[in-house]
Write a structure and sequence with these properties.
The protein is built from 14 helices and 18 strands. With 513 residues, it is α/β, with parallel strands linked by helices.
Length: 513
């Protein structure tokens, strides 16, 4: 007897609207449990891990046991299983989370870019003003450029080098304009970002000598603990995970209640530098699915990618251990009794199709799918949500939980399970446009749209066939994105394409004369 499959149904339903076709067939389509909202006196703590892909976390089903402590945290949290970042690298992903705006609106789309200056007041820190003391910290200087645009709305803005063991950051001396001072002093005068010869031979060379001295001292002190070297950031900031988490705990303890605190950690971003306790993990039989090289980019051999993946997994396990220690300390101190704690990422990481990293035009699941776990005061059980969500949903949800008003300009919606509807027909977007001018319509970009189980990827402005190309996948049936359905399911593809292009045209219309 032939069983009538979900795909059979979708093919048969090609002539009816996609909203009618997909709803009955999504996993866990029953509405989730609702978690009681917090109050205006509740602390809100955001812990963001840079370049953390949900696809490499055992709490989301990854075969390597990378996150036992995050799994322990999940037992008292709402866990989102289909949560995407609005961008595939730090600048757009972080900005969308903190503004509730998509990258094509806030325009922080270039690697070291800034958001539109006339929109800088539309940020989570300003909206938390009044009741909450506001703290911000990031180890990623690119993210700090964005935070510097919100500096007037932040009560305590910690330097990226606050918890380091060696650093060469000098722009932090000038608090009134952190972005300009860091770019002038660290990028130009001292040449911190790997420039062979600093602009100032006198000041820059002297700075290099001073920094190298402190770096050598730190490396000698901790060399036995880190077999492949001390963890470091994009800028010359060297740190130990233990000291970073100690600093976060001490910072939280010193804050007034209620507080809104945002901690953006650099790990597990490359370079992957696990400590000796985790360096020998995962030399196992696990073999990730091998995927063909993508025609647009990527030529790394699979063996190379598998080796990098193993080191990444080791680093995540190291990070998870420190996260568990932080949560234990916060619980023992009683802080969690009156605190919302959110754990998420700004983007993921690729180890497939010949590509390593995230500064890529490709928008496959591992680089977009990030963790999102939110624990509320008194929550004693796990609540799993499978409906697609996006980082633009963080701002309205945290405001709602802190009993603050949600602005009309916000492009996100309340997260299901925390006040929002369980909407299986909503379309969400992720935008990659680092080669496009921030001051012009999007012409060179990759846009991914999620709607129900489907994901449509639109490439535009690249060479050859990717000047205007599409791919479509059913993530419920094909999580690895191996079977492109764009031509085989034309009705659904057409509906998704129409919605994506409509949203794109609307965003581009802001540049019309």
């Amino acid at each position: 007897m032939h069983h009538f499959s979900r795909r059979d149904f979708l093919k048969l339903a090609a002539a009816i609207p996609i909203s009618a076709a997909i709803v009955p067939w999504l996993k866990n389509s029953a509405p989730p449990k609702l978690v009681s909202p917090a109050t205006s006196s509740t602390n809100v703590i955001v812990i963001l891990f840079d370049a953390m892909s949900a696809r490499n976390l055992s709490v989301y089903g990854y075969p390597r046991d990378t996150t036992p402590n995050l799994a322990r945290f999940a037992e008292r949290a709402t866990v989102y299983h289909s949560h995407d970042s609005a961008g595939n690298f730090t600048t757009p992903g972080t900005t969308s989370l903190l503004t509730g705006l998509y990258p094509w609106t806030h325009r922080a789309i270039n690697l070291t870019g800034l958001m539109r200056r006339n929109l800088t007041g539309q940020n989570l820190f300003r909206l938390m003003k009044g009741r909450h003391q506001r703290l911000a910290f990031t180890e990623n200087m690119f993210a700090n450029y964005i935070l510097s645009q919100f500096h007037a709305d932040i009560d305590i803005h910690l330097s990226p080098a606050s918890f380091d063991v060696a650093n060469e950051i000098r722009g932090q001396w000038f608090k009134n304009d952190l972005s300009i001072s860091q770019r002038t002093f660290d990028d130009f005068l001292f040449g911190s970002q790997g420039i062979t010869t600093p602009a100032s031979l006198l000041l820059g060379s002297a700075e290099r000598l001073y920094f190298l001295r402190q770096l050598v001292q730190a490396q000698n002190t901790y060399s036995a603990d880190y077999p492949v070297g001390l963890p470091e950031s994009v800028y010359p900031i060297y740190y130990r995970l233990e000291e970073v988490f100690n600093g976060i705990f001490q910072s939280i303890k010193s804050l007034k209640t209620p507080t809104f605190a945002y901690f953006h950690l650099f790990p597990p971003h490359q370079p992957y530098r696990p400590s000796k306790e985790f360096f020998s993990l995962f030399f196992d039989s696990y073999q990730p699915l091998q995927k063909p090289l993508h025609p647009l980019e990527g030529n790394l051999p699979q063996k190379d990618l598998d080796g990098r993946r193993r080191r990444y997994d080791q680093y995540i396990a190291d990070l998870d251990s420190q996260f568990g220690r932080l949560m234990d300390n916060l619980e023992q101190s009683g802080f969690l009794d009156n605190s919302v704690v959110m754990v998420t990422g700004d983007h993921g990481q690729l180890f497939e199709r010949g590509v390593h990293g995230h500064t890529t035009a490709l928008m496959y699941d591992p680089v977009l799918h990030v963790p999102l776990l939110i624990s509320t005061p008194g929550q004693g059980s796990r609540n799993d949500i499978y409906a697609p969500t996006n980082s633009v949903d963080v701002l309205p949800t945290l405001l709602h939980m802190a009993n603050q008003a949600i602005p009309e300009w916000c492009e996100g919606t309340l997260l299901p399970g925390l006040g929002g509807e369980y909407d299986l027909n909503r379309g969400t977007f992720s935008i990659e446009a680092k080669l496009n001018s921030a001051f012009a319509p999007l012409k060179t970009a990759t846009i991914a749209m999620r709607k129900g189980p489907y994901k449509l990827i639109h490439y535009m402005g690249y060479k050859g066939q990717y000047a205007d190309a599409y791919e479509m996948y059913n993530l419920e049936e094909d999580l690895e994105e191996m079977h492109d359905l764009y031509t085989s399911e034309p009705s659904i593809a057409g509906q998704l394409r129409s919605e994506l292009l409509g949203a794109l045209n609307k965003s581009n219309s802001q540049f019309e004369n």
